[in-house]
Amino acid sequence: xxxxxxxxxxxxxxxxxxxxxxxxxxxxxxxxxxxxxxxxxxxxxxxxxxxxxxxxxxxxxxxxxxxxxxxxxxxxxxxxxxxxxxxxxxxxxxxxxxxxxxxxxxxxxxxxxxxxxxxxxxxxxxxxxxxxxxxxxxxxxxxxxxxxxxxxxxxxxxxxxxxxxxxxxxxxxxxxxxxxxxxxxxxxxxxxxxxxxxxxxxxxxxxxxxxxxxxxxxxxxxxxxx
Length: 226
Fold this sequence. Notes:
- This protein has nine helices and four strands, in the order E-H-E-H-E-E-H-H-H-H-H-H-H.
- It is α+β, with helices and mostly antiparallel strands.
- The chain has a domain at 90-196: Glutathione S-transferase Yfyf (Class Pi), Chain A, domain 2.
- The relative contact order is 0.14.
């Protein structure tokens, strides 16, 4: 197989890239990175010393491609499909890149702060950091509510890389820090995302691993249904 994605089925940033791959029916092989296994972890650190997932390997060029947004742009440049996840218009590209980074930095990152604090020993918890993360999510939800109010997808009518980023970010964030009752547009947008075939496939593949998610008991019932 030409493309290999090193990933974990429960990792939200891996979901972002998987959605991009599934949108275009791109052929690839996935290999799970198990950081609890010393051999698997060591092999991945050789690939990408930062140790983050996902990472894409292209056997044709021999390239290791890290970072989710870079992976999606690499795929569009070298393995294009019918869905352009980054538009050709320069101004639209800026908007897509902006909201792609927004979901990564201001939704996924604070969400992960809350999740990781949940599994820390009691004497190592960081209530101040968690409070700041929740405040960041409140601000992000408000901005997304305004952005999506008159749009079907994040930047307009077309599904883009920003939406690939939005699905895992909002899916997990909505569990650890639910939307307020008046944030109807964000909630409706998440439901649209979950109904997208590429996204629903990613969620279905992650579902067997939900027991590992520290906030598993807070998941809405329809998230758990096959």
